[in-house]
Amino acid sequence: MKKTIMKTFKVKLVKESSSLYDLDCNGIVRSPEDAHEIFNKVFDAENLTKEHLLLASLNTKNKVVALHIVHIGSVNASIVHSRELFQLALLDNASSIIIAHNHPSGDPSPSQQDVQVTRRIVEAGKIIGIELLDHVIIGENCFNSLKEKGYV
């Protein structure tokens, strides 16, 4: 009889104090400006030379419980699949999420692909029960909220 060896894994949440980042909003997202501040202070998103897709997982009080770099793309593109975002959000026990990505060109205008990806994430979130609150596109000293533009 052949024995089967099974591997086991343990995932442990290690909490880091948000006070390390000196956020004006104390990690609570009330507006697109708050989301922009968090992503910019923690990841320096305005100055990244490649597109980075960023994720903020939030609890029921809209307080950030985790921040992630989900994907690093090229100078003008970042591919993301909903499963990658929601896998992280589920592990974070998130009630909702906010995503952001930077445009290294400095122009935060949403592309057609940005809008399509956002709509796909909104639909996937409805099925899973984790709401996408906003998708923020970060440019040089500016940003665009896709929620404010009606895409979320």
Q: Mind explaining what this structure looks like?
A:
- The protein has about 150 residues and is an alpha+beta fold.
- It has a domain of about 100 residues: Cytidine Deaminase, domain 2 (3-Layer(aba) Sandwich), CATH 3.40.140.10.
- Helices cover about 25% and strands about 25% of the residues.
- The protein starts with about 30 loop residues before the first helix and ends in a 7-residue tail after the last strand.
- The mean pLDDT is about 90.
Query: What average pLDDT do the residues reach?
Result: 89
Distance between the termini: 56 Å
Helix-and-strand structural type = alpha+beta
Q: CATH top level of the domain at 24-85 and 96-119 and 132-145?
A: Alpha Beta
**What radius of gyration results from the CA coordinates?**
16 Å
CATH superfamily heading of the domain at 24-85 and 96-119 and 132-145: Cytidine Deaminase, domain 2
Figure out the total of helices.
3
Strand ordering within the main sheet: 2-1-3-4-5
Largest sheet: 5 strands, mixed
Order of helices and strands: HEEHEHEE
Total strands: the figure is 5
What's the CATH architecture name of the domain at 24-85 and 96-119 and 132-145? 3-Layer(aba) Sandwich
Query: In terms of per-residue confidence, which ranges show pLDDT below 50 for 5 or more consecutive residues?
Result: none
Task: Provide the β-strand percentage band.
Answer: 15-25%
Task: Please estimate the helix content.
Answer: 25-40%
Secondary-structure map:
Layout: H1 32-43, E1 52-58, E2 64-72, H2 82-91, E3 96-102, H3 112-128, E4 131-139, E5 142-145
Parallel strand pairs: 3-4
Antiparallel strand pairs: 1-2, 1-3, 4-5
